[in-house]
Amino acid sequence: MSRPDPARRAAYDVLKAVRVESAYANLALPGALARRGVSGRDAAFATELASGAIRWQGLYDEVLGACLDRPLGKVQAKVVDGLRLGCHQLLSMRVPAHAAISTTVDLVRSEVGPGASGFANAVLRKVSEHDRDGWVRRVAPDPGAEPLGFLTTAYSHPRWMVEALGEALAAGGDPAELEALLDAHNQPPAVTLVARPGRSSVDELPGDRTRFSPYGVVSPGGAPADVVAVAEGRAGVQDEGSQLVAHALVAAPLDGRDERWLDVCAGPGGKAALLAALAGPRGARIVANEMQPHRAELVRRSLAGADGVEAVSVEDGTAPPWPARSFDRVLVDAPCTGLGALRRRPEARWRRRPEDLADLVPLQRALLDRALDLVRPGGVVLYATCSPVLAETRDVVGSVLVRRDDVKLGDTRALLTAKTGLRADVPDCDGPLAGTARLWPHRHRTDAMFLALLRRAGA
């Protein structure tokens, strides 16, 4: 009998927190590592073990179901957490089978009890009889007869998500890309750092420059907090796609004054911090608004020490207190399903439901409508979502354009091409909404972002 090693215990803690507390894996992980005293290579192992077990949960549950004599739902949840960790070591990590089984059995014995450990040992020995591809052939539907069902199991996504992502790809390109997109969601994303202009420079950040954003680098590894500029708040961690959202808003040409900007849904503050850094040298000021008080506090921390900040407010963006036509630039980074960030938020694929759209889409439309009221004639609103789902992107923007004759759609695609050199890697356009832009993890190595630039008509 061996004592479970700290790295595996930390990974188990993360799965438990996600299941019991509805925690986010990336937020639960640092605390779990600290409690277990895990650092360095062991921390990297624990990170991959926890995140990977959550990403591949759909496939692993099919595999476990094939190895059980009862429904998986009848197995104690604490045991299932351990079995998923064991599956990930056996099927997706370079851990010898005997080590993956024995360490998982030790973990289950420690967390649940000796009876459960014997059960785990028997199940994992069956799992070890085939590799991941072999199990896919056994538990997934035939790809020829049921291609979406095959992709759902083979790439471990809910069926409705696979369908929604396929529709989004088909609207702007080749639907055969769906498999590449799903595969990209299962690859651990690189950590991208952002230099906030006027406070830090790209040259003082470790790593290679990002392909499109002029502010970013791809970190070579290590803890971002160990980077001096990040520790001091002069730089931060921010996906390149998120950086390009802020860049597109600021790069859009304006006639007349350019003094007052608004970020309607600023939490947790990454885009607002970059916007504030870009506003200061122009003599502009930004109001960063966040309706949720705890997220507004995160925004305040992100903006600490930044020039270019007028205020951090806690207001309902659908019923704003500011006068109409009082801003020159407005960002609506709308609450959404977050299906564009499945690489870094693995639990989202199991937490989101199709019915979430019934609440989100009316909110997105209301936020965009109010933002267009708040921007002056000649000013611009950038509507962005970290989701490619058509209901949250094309349909929201299209519905606003149909109802309002004081709004014109700008060409975000041309703007990004001119300002960032995207060229052949340009995001797709959405047919009748040509000019909206989309970024994809399998094409651009960013989160899947949708961007639409709208200009308020009039002098």
Class of the largest domain, according to the CATH hierarchy?
Alpha Beta
Quote the CATH topology of the largest domain: Rossmann fold
Give the uncertain stretches in residue-range form.
Answer: 423-427
Quaternary structure type: single chain
Q: Provide a count of the helices.
A: 20
| C-alpha end-to-end distance | 78 Å
How many beta-strand segments?
A: 12
Which secondary-structure class do the elements indicate? Answer: alpha/beta
The CATH architecture classification of the largest domain is: 3-Layer(aba) Sandwich
Residue share in β-strands: 5-15%
Shape: globular
Helix content: 40-55%
**Number of separate structural domains:** 3
**Mean pLDDT metric:** 94
CATH superfamily of the largest domain: Vaccinia Virus protein VP39
What about the largest sheet? 8 strands, mixed
Structural Rg: 23 Å
Structure description:
With 459 residues, the chain is an alpha/beta fold. The protein folds into three domains: 6-132, Orthogonal Bundle (N-utilizing Substance Protein B Homolog, Chain A); 140-185, no CATH class; 234-456, 3-Layer(aba) Sandwich (Rossmann fold), CATH 3.40.50. The chain has 20 helices and twelve strands. The strands form two sheets. Strands 5, 6, 7, 8, 9, 10, 11 and 12 form an eight-stranded mixed sheet that branches. α1 runs parallel beside α3 (40-55), α3 (40-55) packs across α5 and α4 (57-66) crosses α5. The longest helix has 19 residues, at 356-374. It is globular. The model is unreliable at 423-427 (pLDDT under 50).
